Amino acid sequence: MTAQLLIEDLSLVFRTRHGMVRALEDVSLSVERGEIVGVVGESGSGKSVMAYAVMGLQDPASQVLGGRIMFGGLDMLRASEAALAEMRGRELAMIFQSPRTALNPIRKVGRQIADILRQHTTSRRGDLRKHAIDALARVRIPDPARRCEAYPFELSGGMCQRVMIAMALACSPSLLIADEPTTGLDVTTQAVIMDLIREMSRDARMSTLLITHDLGLAGEYCDRIAVMHAGHVVEVAPIEELLSRPAHPYTRQLLAATPTSRSTVEELVSIPGQLPDLRRELPACRFSERCERHVGTCDERPLPWTKLSPTHMVRCRVPL
Amino acid sequence: MTPPLLQARALSKHYPVGRGAMLHAVDAVDLAIAPGECVGLVGESGCGKSTLVRLLARLIDPTSGSVLLEGQDIAAVSQAKFVTTPQRSRIQVVFQDPSESLNPAFRVFQSIADPLKRLLGLRDKAKLAMLVHRAADLVGLPRELIERYPHQLSGGQRARVGIARAIAVEPSLLILDEPTSALDVSVQAVILRLLADLRTRLGMSYLFVSHDLNVVRLLCSRIVVMYVGRVVEAAPTETLFTAPRHPYTRALIAAIPDPARRGETRPRLDGSPSSPVDPDPNTCRFYGRCLRGADRCATEMPALRPFGEAHLAACHFA
Amino acid sequence: MSATTLARNVGHAFGQNRLTLVAVAILLLLLLCAAFGQQIAPYDPLMTNGGAKLLAPDAAHLFGTDALGRDILSRVIVAARLDLGMAISAVVLSFLGGLALGAVAGYFGGWSDRIIGRGMDTIMAFPLFVLAMGIVAALGNSVLNIIIATMIINLPFYCRFARGEVNVRREMGYVEAARMGGNRSLPVLVHHIIPNILPPMMVQASLNMGWAILNAAGLSFIGLGVRPPTPEWGIMVSEGASFIISGEWWTFVFPGAALVLAVFCFNLLGDGMRDLLDPRQRI
């Protein structure tokens, strides 16, 4: 098994006051060593829920109904809290949206990096500050020695994100999960941050799971993409193939709705209907109510995976 | 040559930030919008576009400069007085974040009806209802949603209500401040098509502010680029994207994610913008971050120079 | 809101929460006592009876009698009018005053904020109960002055709350939209912002009511405001306190329990009120 990360048939629900939310159903995904896999979906697609599940940080109100997440020989869903804590930070790291709020506002940036190093490496106390400065230099923060003494509020959004990346990479993890890392950042800063993530991932042969709603961003930086809709993974393919020959009706509509440098307003397609309410009983294919290709067999369970090529899979009975 | 609908001349807004220092949020901006034109306004966060929007919408008063609405300076009166003038209904704004821009205590009907009551002085219930329904129909909002509260609507529906409220009084200029950035891609597509359709149908001008250059490219015929409070470039849309002149614009365009350019390492704009507090009036604001940079950039502030058809750029080396 | 939607929302809000129904029941009981106390009371609350002094609770006198032979049950029932009346008046006055001052300070800022802020700081500089005592002592011993004193010391509470709530909302999109829609500053504040801050303020008012009852009773307890023989819970507890040692517990327990019940009831009502008034919960 060469895959760095393997998610198999993950199903997860949330118990809420208004009913049970079927957040994820039979989600399967793999990430190979050194590749950047993008998970693309709109709000409510379950992509962040999946990312947190991989880290073992599920919401306490959630319940795993089935499936497993294999990482480093460990099933992240069934491992003990101690084993998970050992993994996190060292082998498995995550960076979040809103970098300034993800950092501890009352602790200097250098100290926060040192905390991680202290917990997961055997560095000596005296070396910690030096390693922290090195970590900041590696993400190309200018004047790292001085920045180590800064608080998050003194740094710009882009800088804070770099600090978060430095913290995530401090122990050279084998998998990085980036949850909307550049939402809210300017496009120029976004480009720098994404270039950095790509470079780090190539240099260290680190696998990356990039969660984003921005198809254009995923298109430029990812090797493979998984498209999610309403708690299902509907299509997985290498990036060029997904963009030129999308097989799932939702993927095609998503591409048609995304403005690119070559589109016109008239060409922009909107997807009819809305996301289905995840609290009620849902059909086998959750896109069926909004799909123009819907046929009777679409409602039969289980919904199979159709393999269009060794690398291109789609979860649809009538793929394009 | 039709006179512009709205013209800003040497518009500035400075805020005191303690100890005599002034923050130059907007500095000597000239901007013109023709009737029926859609102008895009782009720039980094902190470049002053939100402040400029508020100045043009007359929500705040400028420190200096004028805002001419069909030749009449509406910046001459204070914003408190402007609220009661008939020009107030000529410029309206569609705000970002539909969840915050609708009053949670008002039903949709009330939110749309309020400007009609205040600006057009409508008291007749039947006439009011007719205009509210007309606005709702124009934006494709189903009639049964009109009696709902904002928290009972989806993001896309709230966006429509915000637009309905703004167009109900039939403004000549609609300023759209990131109207779709909080929406999913599929909903964004619907709203953008709606906005394009409304503009031609109602003959309004748009000032479209967005950080998403692909979106701006869709709707706007002309784009203005701001940087640290100043306009650095203004050009027709396609010209800006294919032949940008200012180094900042070039970097901005190059930074747009493009699947067709996978794997290419392009020169990136790193660092942060210079401080808008007490900036040196003789130094180009982009100096220091710019890949070029000569002594002249530090001693002479570049002015907006013409470069062909309606194309202006403020750079010594453009 | 129309009458039918109001009724529907009330039913929905109270149906959601059983405790709120209990609180409403208690409130109705208290209001009944306040309105019809004289009629409900089994005995004349002021009638003394030398031969029936300090009788323990029995069939004839459910709450016993006090040192002057008066029926305690009757006195407790009739006292509801005074206690609730004082508390409600004080709370309503300080609510309205605090709302107005706080909203103006929070919206306009600048000088109005500074002046109002200093005014409130002056009030809060004193230990509030001592200030109330001082005001009653200065203005004279009467029920009206208890209400005025309670209102004054309660003002900063609402003022600060209103100011904070208005401040948070001042920069929101819908406020800017209201200004774009032709509203001047005062209409924006009154028609657009205040309806949104009323729900949290009403919750505060309900919780505050309990405090106001105790405050008024407290002033009476130390002998200010209400004079004997007027039945009032605070004064009854004060009179009964002298019997703690000798064991005639009914003289202070029952009026005390009435106070507890009233405060408890208003605290429970706080949540129910918020659900009723919060636009997000409306259907």
Describe it.
The complex is a heterotrimer of chains A (320), B (318) and C (283). Helix content of chain A is 32%, strand content 24%. Chain A is an alpha/beta fold and 320 residues long. In chain A, a hairpin with a 2-residue loop joins strand 11 and strand 12. Helix content of chain B is 31%, strand content 21%. Chain B has 11 helices and 12 strands. In chain B, the strands form 2 sheets. Chain B has an 8-stranded mixed sheet with strand order 6-7-8-3-9-10-12-11, with helices on both faces. A 4-stranded antiparallel sheet of chain B has the order 2-1-4-5. In chain B, a hairpin with a 5-residue loop joins strand 1 (6-16) and strand 2 (22-33). The longest helix of chain B is centred in the middle third of the chain and has 18 residues, at 185-202. Chain C has 283 residues and is mostly helical. In chain C, 75% of the residues lie in helices and 0% in strands. Chain C contains 10 helices and no strands. Chain C has helices at 3-16, 18-40, 72-108, 110-124, 128-139, 143-170, 173-180, 185-221, 233-241, 250-277. In chain C, helix 3 runs antiparallel to helix 4 and helix 7 packs across helix 8 (185-221). The termini of chain C are close together. The interface between A and B is large, with 42 and 39 residues.
Summarize the structure.
Chain A is of the alpha/beta class.
